[in-house]
Amino acid sequence: MMRSVNPDLDLTISRVIKAPRSVIWSAWTDPWSFEQWWVPAPAKCKVLEMDLRPGGSFETQISEDGGEFVPHLSGCFLDIVDGERITFTNALLGGWRPAEHPFMTAIVTLQEHPQGTEYVAHVMHKNDADRAMHEKMGFADGWGTVMEQLANLAEQRATSRARP
Amino acid sequence: MEQDARQLNGIFQAIADPTRRAVLGRLGSGPASVSDLAKPFDMALPSFMQHIRLLEESGWIRTRKVGRVRICAIEEEPFTAVERWLFEQRAIWEGRTDRLQQFVETIRVEETQE
């Protein structure tokens, strides 16, 4: 399939993870495992539906600061290649029903690598009013999320560098 | 693209330090003077000023002098709205990937130990 890249709308995360492909696959596709890493602590993730087939519903909730669980991701899987690739979007819901606020399609691929597995997430975004709406949520809100994520990221990188 | 990558490296480097992250966190709720920002830290002012300078050089903050007081504020200029949005999405996905990596690599360690 032809996949075009738009640097203003797409992002690609690539990482070599020291674990076999099957382990990463089950960390992604087993709902309990997925809940352990999808959102940053102390927030908690709950998987309501993870129907791994084209058109299958993908529905998660999030609880921040110990509060009640609220909708987080509502989407559907577009394509599943067992052990290798997961494609999902929030442009459609389970059973191909069009979603209210679509903005992304993500393609996660796992490839054999001498040190384990190469994990690649390619995320394509939509460019329109939904993003403007996101902007309206305010600089501080968006920035708070980013800062937290970045801080975690920097800490983890620092820790992993400190390891022998 | 290459310039973007360099800019991103500088941005990440600037926040790979708890003091600078705390300063940015504080400035997230509004501008503040250097002496107010320095208060929570057990640090000589010249050392603290180095952190402020690094944040300013990497484009995270801007400073201006009002009389004898230096006021710092978070800089919005380096990121256009779109860049900032994509940057935020990237941070979210980087975070997810970090946690997935940590999760599977921890499982592996536990399995080998059993």
What is shown here, in short?
The complex is a heterodimer of chains A (164) and B (114). With 164 residues, chain A is an alpha+beta fold. Helices cover 29% and strands 36% of the residues of chain A.
Q: What is the number of beta strands of chain B?
A: 3
Neighbour order of strands in the largest sheet of chain B: 1-3-2
- What is the level 1 CATH name of the largest domain in chain B? Mainly Alpha
The H-level CATH homologous superfamily of the largest domain in chain B, spelled out, is Winged helix-like DNA-binding domain superfamily/Winged helix DNA-binding domain
What is the CATH topology assignment of the largest domain in chain A? Answer: Alpha-D-Glucose-1,6-Bisphosphate, Chain A, domain 4
Q: Percent range for helical residues of chain A?
A: 25-40%
**If classified by CATH, what would the architecture of the largest domain in chain A be?**
2-Layer Sandwich
Distance between the termini of chain B: 46 Å
Largest interchain contact: A-B, 44 and 38 residues
How would you describe the overall organization of this protein?
The complex is a heterodimer of chains A (164) and B (114). Chain A is α+β, with helices and mostly antiparallel strands and 164 residues long. Chain A folds into two domains: 10-126, START domain (Alpha-D-Glucose-1,6-Bisphosphate, Chain A, domain 4, 2-Layer Sandwich), CATH 3.30.530; 128-164. Chain A contains four helices and seven strands, in the order E-H-H-E-E-E-E-E-E-H-H. Chain A has helices spanning 21-29, 31-37, 129-136, 139-162, and strands spanning 10-17, 44-50, 57-63, 70-81, 85-89, 104-113, 116-125. Chain A has a seven-stranded antiparallel β-sheet with strand order 1-7-6-5-4-3-2. The longest helix of chain A is centred in the C-terminal third of the chain and has 24 residues, at 139-162. Chain A is globular, with a radius of gyration of 17 Å. Mean pLDDT of chain A is 82; it is low at 132-144. Chain B has 114 residues and is of the alpha+beta class. Chain B folds into two domains: 1-77, Winged helix-like DNA-binding domain superfamily/Winged helix DNA-binding domain (Arc Repressor Mutant, subunit A, Orthogonal Bundle); 79-114. Chain B is built from five helices and three strands. In chain B, a hairpin with a 2-residue loop joins strand 2 (61-66) and strand 3. The longest helix of chain B has 33 residues, at 81-113. Classes of the chains: A alpha+beta (164), B alpha+beta (114). Chains A and B meet through strand 1, helix 1, helix 2, strand 7 and helix 3 of A and helix 2 and helix 5 of B.
